[in-house]
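Archive entry. Fields below.
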Amino acid sequence: MSDTTGAGIDPAIRKYIDDRLAEAARDAPDHRVTLVVFSGDLDRQLASLVIATGAAAMGMEVSIFYTFWGLTALKKKSVLTGKTLKEKMFVAMTPASLEKMPLSKLNFGGMGRTMLMTMMKEKEIASVEELFAMAREMGVKQIACTMSMDVMGLTKEELIDGVSLGGVATFLGDAARSKVSLFI
Amino acid sequence: MMEDRTLDARGLKCPMPIVKAKKELDAMTAGQVLKVIATDPGSILDFQGWMKTSATCELLSQEEGKDDQGRAIYVHHLRRKS
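PREDICTED_STRUCTURE:
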């Protein structure tokens, strides 16, 4: 009769097996997705939110790192006071929020964007704003890259609530344990 | 097949059928079956992909058909395992 309890196994072999199992468990990725959203284009933001909400629905942990142009998605309002001239110019030249982002192609001064939004609505596809709200509701973790915030002169007060602040190690810490990592 | 709940996901586009199904399954208990009626042809592979990675739910069946308005529909049966 075979021994299924493992009681008869040599303690040294037993320890070796237990150690290897612990090692495998430690190195195994979590059921997790990590996205870097670098782009401030509405279409790319849309793609990132479809992946994020889909993954969250599939029971995966989701982290999105917003960096550079992507940070606009987290902007609540634009503040000018206390900023340097260059920072003020930056505020004036970048979109004020997710709603104001241009398309990566065929934007035509916003006409293309309006057209796409209308087409999506006609086809009953969830809007970028809806997906963004849904992602937050589903517990998608949003992290703003502090280095990019610093470069652009963005303060925490300009960002929506519930956003964490982090850097490259925060991203890598999550990405290293992820099954899927994407740069968008 | 007897279902405990039905989700009418007709007209919903990716990722909404998955998102809504997840909400339903969260509110259900182990052993219960959810029937999802979708019109998104991508939902066939979507539910397969999801259930392949899920530890708590399983895909029981998938069928294609037509609803009373003649639209192509995809009917999925999912069971909550735990």
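CURATOR_NOTE: Helices of chain A lie at 11-27, 42-57, 85-93, 111-122, 128-137, 146-152, 168-175.
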